[in-house]
TrEMBL record:
<dbReference type="InterPro" id="IPR041712">
    <property type="entry name" value="DHPS-like_MBL-fold"/>
</dbReference>
<dbReference type="InterPro" id="IPR001279">
    <property type="entry name" value="Metallo-B-lactamas"/>
</dbReference>
<dbReference type="GO" id="GO:0016740">
    <property type="term" value="F:transferase activity"/>
</dbReference>
<dbReference type="InterPro" id="IPR036866">
    <property type="entry name" value="RibonucZ/Hydroxyglut_hydro"/>
</dbReference>
<dbReference type="InterPro" id="IPR052926">
    <property type="entry name" value="Metallo-beta-lactamase_dom"/>
</dbReference>
<protein>
    <recommendedName>
        <fullName>Metallo-beta-lactamase domain-containing protein</fullName>
    </recommendedName>
</protein>
<dbReference type="Pfam" id="PF00753">
    <property type="entry name" value="Lactamase_B"/>
</dbReference>
<feature type="domain" description="Metallo-beta-lactamase">
    <location>
        <begin position="29"/>
        <end position="220"/>
    </location>
</feature>
């Protein structure tokens, strides 16, 4: 178990702004296939599929690009990395944290050339969050590396995932075991439930609750049923408090 003092555990809750998702909660914002969120006003997790749309959403939500201190990429798929080039054109030199090995199969190596690339084979503290370390799996016959981020706040320990290709139950259980003794709070993000039927999704949600997560908020690749069965229906423009 990691020591409780090893990364920030503020007395106040943390905010997560949903910047990119398949659906919006405000008609003035752009949606698209993919995911991106901003944690604590400064840590960007994934960049969606389209940079111009993500930048427009930032402006519409009155978030300055200058406030972003680092980018964490969950996995090297276009719908989570597509906005990175636009962001780095505007903010060259930003630190970009990748799962170990993702640099070799990254879809836009030119974009990475404008960043300070840092690999995360193991859990790594990045400001107010910590990466899970790299999970490796096979996806459609190819090797896939993925990481999530852990957020500690006054409300408990939460997990944010991009797509959860290695399996949402596997990732969720690993985090729960690593932070044994913590109160688990929210599990937020893409959970790759889109190809499951209602009974399978409901069973998965129940298992996540049994692990200890009090609130499940499914986005992106979780499918319409996953969103419907979530404890909160989210989309671009939403602000979630952890």
């Amino acid at each position: 178990m990691l020591p409780a003092s090893s990364f920030l555990s503020p007395e106040l809750p943390m905010t997560v702004h949903i910047l990119y998702d398949n659906q919006t909660v405000r008609s003035s914002l752009e949606s698209g296939w993919g995911f991106s969120c901003l944690v604590d006003g400064k840590i960007l997790f994934d960049t969606g599929e389209a940079g111009p749309a993500m930048v427009k959403n930032l402006k519409e939500m009155e978030i300055s690009l200058e406030e972003i201190e680092a980018v964490i990429v969950s996995h090297p798929h276009w719908d989570h990395t597509g906005g990175l080039k636009t962001l780095l054109d505007l903010r060259p030199g930003l630190s970009v944290y990748l799962p170990a090995g993702a640099q070799d199969i990254f879809p836009d190596k030119e974009a990475l050339g404008k960043a300070e690339v840092i690999l995360c084979p193991e859990a790594l503290d990045i400001g107010p969050v910590r990466t899970t370390g790299t999970f490796t799996t096979e996806y459609k016959g190819d090797l896939m590396m993925e990481q999530g981020i852990v957020v500690r706040s006054a409300r408990g320990t939460s997990l944010i995932t991009g797509c959860a290709h290695p399996g949402i139950l596997k990732i969720a259980q690993e985090v729960a075991s690593t932070y044994a003794g913590d109160d688990l709070y929210t599990l937020l993000g893409g959970m790759h439930l889109v190809n499951m039927d209602r009974d399978q999704i409901r069973k998965t949600m129940d298992q996540l609750k049994e692990i200890g997560y009090k609130r499940i908020i499914a986005t992106h690749c979780s499918g319409e049923i996953g969103r419907e069965l979530s404890d909160h229906r989210t989309g671009v423009g939403d602000i979630i408090v952890l």
